[in-house]
Amino acid sequence: MPNLLNETPGLIAFVRTVESGSFSAAAKILRTSPSAVSRSVGRLETLVRARLFLRSTRALVLTFEGQSLFDKVAPLLRQLDTSDEVASREDTLAGRIRFSMPSDLARYFLTPIFRDFASAFPAIKLEVGLADRQVDLIREDYDVAFRVGGSGQGELRVRKLANVNMVIVASPAYLEKHGKPRSADEASALPFARYIVRGHPSPMVFAGGKQFSPQGRVDCDTGQALRAAALHGLGAALLMKCVVQDELNDGRLIDISTELDLPPQPLNVVHAFGSMIPLRVRRFCDFIADQTKSIPGL
Known about the structure:
Blueprint: H1 8-20, H2 23-30, H3 34-48, E1 53-55, E2 60-62, H4 64-83, E3 95-101, H5 103-120, E4 124-130, E5 144-148, E6 157-164, E7 166-170, H6 172-178, H7 184-188, E8 191-197, E9 200-201, E10 204-205, E11 211-212, E12 215-220, H8 223-231, E13 237-240, H9 245-250, E14 254-255, E15 265-271, H10 279-291
Parallel strand pairs: 3-4, 3-5, 8-12
Antiparallel strand pairs: 1-2, 5-15, 6-15, 7-13, 7-14, 8-9, 10-11
């Protein structure tokens, strides 16, 4: 039986390659070259005397032996990732936290993160990704992601932080032209600035399960773009109330969903650590949860 501890770099390279899908992606995570990752995996294959991947110019496919090894080794590496914190005091937490957050929420969270959390834990390195899309935590090497609505990948652990109130907003000129809808059916006939997810417009969902696919000539992939389109009268837009509160207060946008039954959406934090979430990540999620209490509209 080979001693796998003699090829720890190969085990790490192998697991990261499986999780990220390619030698190139694994190399970015490990901050090395694709050829170095390939050589490490090759040495591991020699040690275990089995082909772990079927290689082609376009893809890597795990063999039966590769899947078996991954199932055994990946949980152990996750435990090793957290072992440096087992005996740590709160003020000595160290390591990296790479997180993804919708760009519209950055205005509420980045200042306290940089001002308070970073000061409290100076040995923690922060990597910030602002994206309205649902990132792939494993393939893109994120520790946690903050999401409004569905949590996405089924294997992720989900922690609900708050409920987010939603509104359909439009400009005064739009309201004068189209009026305010009194039902979901009337809303479905209105032109919208649409939020696009993986090439398709996100449906408008109402309490009771009624929904429709909005129509319109402006498609956007960020909340900021939706807000801008609504401000310029190019369509109504479904947005988090907290991110348009200023525009609602000064009359630049009007809530046209007051007679509609829009359910709130959950603000979740998701991760792929299972029950072995690193302490630094847990403390970060606790910090964000506490910050949600001071955001108007949540």
